[in-house]
Amino acid sequence: MSYQELPVQMHPRYDEFTAFLKALETDAKITPSTKHLAFDVWLKMVESNDKLRARNALLVDALNEMSE
Hints:
Blueprint: H1 14-23, H2 32-67
């Protein structure tokens, strides 16, 4: 079973997401469906950032090898 098939609350990064939400200063009411959507958007953003960091690290390594 993939993480996509599990409830959002069981995702391994859900605790990171709830910490992110707690850091927001808002009086907005967050319904369960809104929270689910927010998690999906947050996760996509975080995963994209993780991929960019990995690619940047590869580029830095390649540049360092070229300069040696």
